[in-house]
Amino acid sequence: MGSARYDTIGRNYSQFRRTEPNWEAQIRDALGGAQNVLNVGAGTGSYEGAARSITSLEPSRVMIDQRSEGAAPCVQGVAEALPFASDTFDATMGVLTMHHWPDRVAGLREAARVAPHHVYTVYETASAHTFWLTDYFPETRLLSTEKQAPNADSIDEVLRVVDEQVLWVERGCVEGFAAASWARPHDYLNPEMQNAISLFALSEPEVRERGTAQLRADLESGAWHDRYGELAELERADFGYRLVVAERR
Ligand SMILES: C[S@@+](CC[C@H](N)C(=O)[O-])C[C@H]1O[C@@H](n2cnc3c(N)ncnc32)[C@H](O)[C@@H]1O
User: Fold this and answer.
1) Tally of domains in the chain
2) 0.85 cut: is pTM over it?
3) Which residues on adjacent β-strands are paired with residue 121?
4) Chain-centroid distance, C-alpha 101
5) What CATH number is attached to the domain comprising 37?
6) So what's the pLDDT on residue 1?
């Protein structure tokens, strides 16, 4: 089941996945005056500096065990069955978690039950699949998480979307999500780093091996720079990551 997935693929998550300051600032702004926030699919605790009072919810024990001592209190559970009374929170938030939920509609209904305001980071597959890395691993465009990736329209089927913002990926992005190292292609050759990205972790071993070997060869021959060298000019790029702000209907 999707919720137990990170017990397997999240083992070295905290080593590679860190808080991107620009994203955290955007999330903080979008939360507005919310005092009491539920962080759904909180993982190891990145982005919990976005609000003063956070309660976290996370299904994977492996992820919970990587949370630092000072992290927010974390309850084990899933978005689709929040173990909280109605209207417990001012807001819910979630960072790159919704595409893993087996039942997005149920999760969003639960979010609306426990809070009136909602801030989620998601990615648009149409843009994400133009990212150069997916040329090396085209099979990843067909993963179940990609097919069920939410966007503002699908969130709006349950909540009322009031704002959508681009989450730019800076050249020096310190996070470890799929496109974070867009300007540092050699990073993607590291198998440990790949393990902390679900797009790789959910792929068949032969898909990973073939794509990694091709990327290594293209970096050595200069073919990568010939194809994607214009990226070297950019300070930041848009790979389809979006901040969606919504209200209870
Ligand atoms: C890519 S990680 C993001 C973790 C954290 N939000 C962050 O930004 O570092 C996705 C998280 O969603 C969690 N998740 C998967 N299915 C879930 C569900 N049904 N309900 C809540 N969280 C879920 C995973 O266990 C994992 O910790």
Assistant:
1) 1
2) yes
3) 95, 243
4) 12
5) 3.40.50.150
6) 44
